[in-house]
Amino acid sequence: MSTEGQVDNKIGLEGAEKVKIRRRLVKADSWPKFYRGLAMLFSSGITLDNAIAQLYRSTEDIGLRRALRKTGKALSRGTDLPRAFRESVPNFAPFHQELIYLGMETGKLAVILDHLADYEEKKQKMNLKLRATLTYPAFQTGLAFLILLIAPAHFQASLMETLSSLNEDTPVLLSILFKVSWVANYFVLGCLCVLVILPLVWDPLGAVLAHERTIVFYGRVRDKALRIADFIPGLGRIFQAFAQERFTRALALQLDAGRPLLPSLRSAFRATASPVFKDWEDKVVEDVQNGESLEESLRSTGLFDEISFLSFMKVGEESGVSAEILNKSANLQAESIDANLSSAMAALEPVLLCLVGLFIGGIILTFFVPLTQMIQTL
Predict the structure, then answer these.
(1) Which tens digits make up the pLDDT trace of 50-97?
(2) 241 and 364 assigned to the same domain
(3) Which of 74, 92, 110 is the last residue of a domain?
(4) Are 316 and 326 in contact (CB under 8 A)?
(5) Closest of 231, 335, 326 to residue 276, by C-alpha
(6) Domains held by the chain: number
C-alpha cells in the first residue's frame, strides 16, 4: 500500500473518494485543545503519527482536520513535526514552530505543548475581551444608524408627491438624505444576497483566505490599522497594553522552557503582532548583546509600563527567576486590562447614545423643516 493510502487508512479514510482537499484556516480556539490533546497522547507513549490520527478523528474544526491529514502524510515521509505543521497549517505561527523545535531538541515536547496550550488559552481569553469591548458597541451603534437610514427611502414617494402638489422644491438636505437612504437599502439587500450565496462558496472562499498571499496581505492591512489606532487617544493605549501582555507571556514561556534570552526576545516581540513593538526588536536585542540590562533596554522603548512590567523585570533579573516573575507580571497586566476595558465600556455607552440621539434629531429636523415651510405657505 502506498504511503498516502497507509495514512488514509490510519485516519479512517480508507475507501474515501479522492477529492481535492482545499486548505482552510485553523480556528484560534482549536489550538489549546489540540496542543493539550497531543501532549497527553505523546506523554502516554503514543507515537506522533498515531496521536495525529486520533486527534484527526476527534476534532470538529474542518481546517484542523484537513491540516492534520496533510501533517500525517508529511510525518510518514519523514518530515519532522514542526515542519509538517508549517507545511500543512496556513496560519501556523513561527513562534509555535520555534518552541516545538526546542521541545524536540530538549526532549520536553509534551511539556512545551502543555505550555503552548496554556499560552493560547490565555491569549484567546484576552482577545475575546478586546473583541467584546470593541465589537458590541460598534455593532449596536452601526445597527441603529443603519435602521434609521433605511426608513426615509420608504417615505420618499409620498413626501415628493405632497411637495409637487404644493409646487415646492425638494430641500437639498432632504434630497441627500433620500439618496443615502437608498444606498443603505441596497446595502442591506446586497448583504442578504451574500448570506444566501455564502454557503455555496464557503469552501473555495476558505481556501482563498488560507492562501499565503491572502495571509500576507491581511497582515499588512492589520499592521497599518494598528499603526493608525496607535494615534487614537485611549484606543492606542489599549492595544499597547494587549501587546505588552502578549510579550510578557511569550517571553516567560520561552525562558521557562529553557530557551536562551536573545532568541526568546525576538520571538516575544513578534508574538505581540504589533508593528510598533516589532520596530524595536533589533534595537533591544542589540542593546542586550552589548551588555545593557534587559530592564533598561526595554525601558528605553517607552512601550512598557513601570508598575506592571518594568519593576517585575528588574526583580526577575536580580533574582534569576525571570520566568516566574514574568508570569506574575502577565497576570497583573491581564487584571489591569480587564478593569480598563470595563471602565472604557462604561464611558463609551453614554457617548454612543448621544451620537445616536444627535443622528435621530438630525433626521427629524430634515423632515420637519420642509413640512413646517409647507404649512406656512398654506
Answers:
(1) 999 999 999 989 999 999 999 988 988 888 889 999 988 888 888 898
(2) yes
(3) 92
(4) yes
(5) 231
(6) 2
